[in-house]
Fold this protein.
Amino acid sequence: MVVLEKAPAKINLSLDVLHKRTDGYHEVEMVMTTVDLADRIELSLLSGGKIKIESESRFVPNDERNLAYRAAQLMQKHFQIKQGVYIFLEKNIPVAAGLAGGSSDAAAVLRGLNKLWNINASIDTLAELGAQIGSDVSFCVYGGTAVARGRGEKIEELPAPPPCWVVLAKPAIGVSTQSIYQKLNIQKAEHPDTQAMIDALHRGSFEDICAQVSNTLEGVTTKLHPEVDQIKEKMKQAGAEAVLMSGSGPTVFALVSQDAKVHRIYNSLKGFCPEVYMVRMLGTRETT
Ligand code: ATP
């Protein structure tokens, strides 16, 4: 038996950091949505309780450092499973990019093993478990569109944004989320109006969503990597309706409602950035 799971990337329509908590984590408020750029995960049974992971990507580790491996370990331990699993990971989402690729892989493994090992846990239980792996994993278990609070594990579902194109451009740099948070000055940084973004999604207004995109971490990453601002500028000049850095970066996304414009934006970035993608917004939950 083989179980296939799709692990889509997410973008942050807004990202706010409220304060640093006494446990060392940051209290956040993030509006996130999934896009149609996905890793593909293949799971099959292995005997003897062994976990084996393989991927053709040279950017991700093929051992317990891989978040997908950790998700399998956690499922085995939590549900006292004696079976093992072979995980094949087809990596399509750029790594260390602000698109939650690792978290989405881990979430897909939680969902997939729930089927492969006949565990039948609820999606809420899987999301709770996911929080032990990383802050974005709970959101990725559900997918769709949501506001995430706490350190990212408290999920409230939101309506999907109106269908549109998303152009993603990642400059040839990797960004460590931890170092960006360390350099953030919460008082001085810009803060999004999260409620206004939530209201815009409830109204289904593409224009209002575009007006509210904002990311508290953007200023920190831009200061270290001016490429981020250059990409934003190029996207705006080519006619993007909204542009923002996702997560801690460095990937920048553009929201585009018109088919006629999206190729212009994609092409304007193609020669400038090594990794450019033109995808559709997903936005609705595909989980069962
Ligand atoms: P986020 O948006 O949640 O901060 P990210 O997109 O910035 O995540 P990832 O692509 O998840 O970052 O990778 C961050 C680090 O995690 C990388 O340095 C990578 O080595 C490690 N990692 C572990 N497992 C995976 C995986 N399955 N896919 C990608 N990276 C992984």
The CA atoms of residues 60 and 66 lie 7 Å apart. The longest strand covers residues 26-46. Residues 60-61, 65-68, 95-103, 105, 136, 177, 247-248 surround adenosine-5'-triphosphate (CB under 6 Å).
